[in-house]
């Protein structure tokens, strides 16, 4: 036992500063590189909002703006990933080491001015996915965090009924390995949702960050080593229920109601055209490289160029 105790202590030291963060997002066959927290922020562009470390936020941070997107108010860098409602987005963590952990995934509809200059404040967030304890007891069972330690991946589906538009997506890992010291690891990215969805979540289910979590929530005020955790076979995941995909029809933008459509002569069409925010280049990319009028093709690293 002494050997394994020493081994456990050594591994704690080795991974103590490991923590983690979402490094890439994959939609269909396209990989979108996230923010690189340990590289200079100067000149970085990604669909993901800037954040500075893999370190956790803790209970003392629950009232701070950092609990929203893991930064103190950084906005977008001009990029956004296109995804059809009903399709899947795969988050891949650069590293993750904590097995007892819950995953929570939220979205928020950006204002009509778009996501880039919007900070995600207010009661605007709805949950699209979560998973906590999968089997066994809280103390010794299998958690969503086990899957992420083993694969570094969590895949979620954008609700099929969700109205098209600009959204933030927020992945939040909640590590529970330390008794009474839950650790939060949120990161946000910008999405352009396409499709024929016609629903936005009702305001009654929306939450804010900070605000959605409290230190007294049973899933936050949590002792994984306690006697209760040795017998409990379910875990109360913090935050709201996952949105069921039903709710209010989106409000029509009043400015569109009074706009009189102006007939425009049809210009000669290029042989192909990439819609704004679509991919237009990068290593290995074999598709169309002509951006729609009003947008230009810009490189976001070697593997992805986007019409912006
Ligand atoms: Cu950690």
Automatic annotation (TrEMBL):
GO terms for biological process: cellulose catabolic process. GO terms for cellular component: extracellular region. Gene3D superfamilies: 2.70.50.70. This is AA9 family lytic polysaccharide monooxygenase. Residues 272-308 form the CBM1 domain. Keywords: Carbohydrate metabolism, Cellulose degradation, Copper, Disulfide bond, Metal-binding, Monooxygenase, Oxidoreductase, Polysaccharide degradation, Secreted, Signal. The keyword Nucleus does not apply. InterPro entries: AA9, AA9_LPMO, CBD, CBD_sf. Has a modular structure: an endo-beta-1,4-glucanase catalytic module at the N-terminus, a linker rich in serines and threonines, and a C-terminal carbohydrate-binding module (CBM). The lineage of its organism: Eukaryota, Fungi, Dikarya, Ascomycota, Pezizomycotina. Its EC number is 1.14.99.56. Lytic polysaccharide monooxygenase (LMPO) that depolymerizes crystalline and amorphous polysaccharides via the oxidation of scissile alpha- or beta-(1-4)-glycosidic bonds, yielding C1 and/or C4 oxidation products. Catalysis by LPMOs requires the reduction of the active-site copper from Cu(II) to Cu(I) by a reducing agent and H(2)O(2) or O(2) as a cosubstrate. Its main location: secreted. The keyword Transport does not apply. GO terms for molecular function: cellulase activity; cellulose binding; metal ion binding; monooxygenase activity. Its cofactor is Cu(2+). It is found in: Secreted. Residues 1-20 form the signal peptide. It catalyses: [(1->4)-beta-D-glucosyl]n+m + reduced acceptor + O2 = 4-dehydro-beta-D-glucosyl-[(1->4)-beta-D-glucosyl]n-1 + [(1->4)-beta-D-glucosyl]m + acceptor + H2O.
